[in-house]
Amino acid sequence: MNVHEYQAKGVLKEFGVPVSRGVAILKASDAGAAARELGGPLWVVKSQIHAGGRGKGKFTEKEAGDEGGVRLAKSVAQVEAYAAQMLGKTLVTAQTGPAGKQVNRLYLEQGANIAKEFYLSLLVDRATSRVAFVVSTEGGMDIEEVARHTPDKIVTFSVDPATGVMPHHGRAIAKALGLSGGLAQQAETLTAQLYAAFIAKDMAMLEINPLIVSGEGQIMCLDAKISFDSNALYRHPDIVALRDETEEDPKEIEASKHDLSYVALDGAIGCMVNGAGLAMATMDIIKYYGAEPANFLDVGGGATKDKVTAAFKIITADPQVKGILVNIFGGIMKCDVIAEGVIAAVKGVGLEVPLVVRLEGTNVELGKKIIADSGLDVISADDLDDAAQKIVAAVKKA
């Protein structure tokens, strides 16, 4: 689960992390009062969408201007003008795709006197099963570009969960950033604060870009991006309350209501699979045969008939889906349950695109018989390779 920048900073502030003062704005008419409350002489007007690259982004509407999704304002009047231009408009960044995202919220923040900019993030390093710090002197830039062109400017280390963060971790960050004296002490404190927040709130990723040293000699988090582990949200009702469903795909929201692992993609072949590994393999072989998957959908190992029906309805609700591949390897999940769910879904919502079903495992013969006796126009497949070829061919023929 992702949150907006101002929400992320609110969470970090609970742990003592230094952030600028700011006010969230939902209506352009509130911008002037918010600016006066913060005081000048400089304000930063930030678009709030779940995507990076906002400063370099462009609005699709002419009346929004050409200054991107993050703007510096030097007067209250300018703050009001920017708010009116940006709210309700569509911002396209490198991470939104060409469709962009509508800006429904702004974050008005006090301007900062920036002396130096750095990059700092925490993430789960699956190779070591630890939380890793990623630090670079190249703040304000896309870390992917830094890694590609100057990888020597990125320092990475992980924290042993048995000890937690230690003073030497803070010193490592200070050294990597070239900080000494009082700034090194601040970096050590910040390291402990960020790690504590990461662990306490079950974060999956925490990115500060840029982390700055102000002209007054203070370290501050000028931006913050947080992703939370969705599997741990039951422990954090305060974080769940921050969810902004307008930033999410409606199909993904519906899937979450049925405890389905669903991610919308850009292709034309809808996939319903049990098991994340099998789902990835299914998408790969679809691409291998020259087509693109429309989604990742894992119904899980113990899905019920109702859950399978819900999954099928979500796939068919996507107008870009031109064919559907159901690929089930029955272990805990029984093939006859999948078959009954597919039939119920087809009868409930109809079937206007080709459907290929590959079943294998527990009760496979019963599952195949249920589908064969249903009278539905379903293409049966013997294995994954056969299934992929058949659905790609059916979609191209259609």
Automatic annotation (TrEMBL):
Gene name? Answer: sucC
The residue ranges of the ATP-grasp domain are: 9-241
Q: Which InterPro entries match?
A: ATP-grasp, ATP-grasp_succ-CoA_synth-type, ATP_grasp_subdomain_1, Succ-CoA_synthase_bsu_CS, SUCC_ACL_C, Succ_CoA_ligase-like_bsu, Succinyl-CoA_synth-like
Q: Which UniProt keywords apply?
A: ATP-binding, Ligase, Magnesium, Metal-binding, Nucleotide-binding, Tricarboxylic acid cycle
Q: How is the cofactor bound?
A: Binds 1 Mg(2+) ion per subunit.
Q: What does this protein do?
A: Succinyl-CoA synthetase functions in the citric acid cycle (TCA), coupling the hydrolysis of succinyl-CoA to the synthesis of either ATP or GTP and thus represents the only step of substrate-level phosphorylation in the TCA. The beta subunit provides nucleotide specificity of the enzyme and binds the substrate succinate, while the binding sites for coenzyme A and phosphate are found in the alpha subunit.
Gene Ontology cellular component list: cytosol; succinate-CoA ligase complex
Name used for this protein in its record: Succinate--CoA ligase [ADP-forming] subunit beta
What reaction(s) does this enzyme catalyze? succinate + ATP + CoA = succinyl-CoA + ADP + phosphate; (S)-malate + ATP + CoA = (S)-malyl-CoA + ADP + phosphate; GTP + succinate + CoA = succinyl-CoA + GDP + phosphate
Q: Per its UniProt record, what NCBIfam families does this chain match?
A: PRK00696.1, sucCoAbeta
Alphabetically, the GO molecular function entries are: ATP binding; magnesium ion binding; malate-CoA ligase activity; succinate-CoA ligase (ADP-forming) activity; succinate-CoA ligase (GDP-forming) activity
- Is the Ribonucleoprotein keyword given for this protein? no
Q: Could you give the subunit structure recorded for this chain?
A: Heterotetramer of two alpha and two beta subunits.
Q: Which family does it belong to?
A: Belongs to the succinate/malate CoA ligase beta subunit family.
Q: In which pathway does it act?
A: One-carbon metabolism; formaldehyde assimilation via serine pathway; Carbohydrate metabolism; tricarboxylic acid cycle; succinate from succinyl-CoA (ligase route): step 1/1
Q: What is its EC number?
A: 6.2.1.5
Task: List the cofactors.
Answer: Mg(2+)
Q: Name one GO biological process term.
A: succinyl-CoA metabolic process
Transmembrane residue ranges: none
Annotated residues that bind Mg(2+) are located at: N209, D223
Residues reported in the UniProt entry to bind substrate = N274, G331, I332, M333
Record-listed ATP binding positions? K46, G53, R54, G55, E109, A112, E117
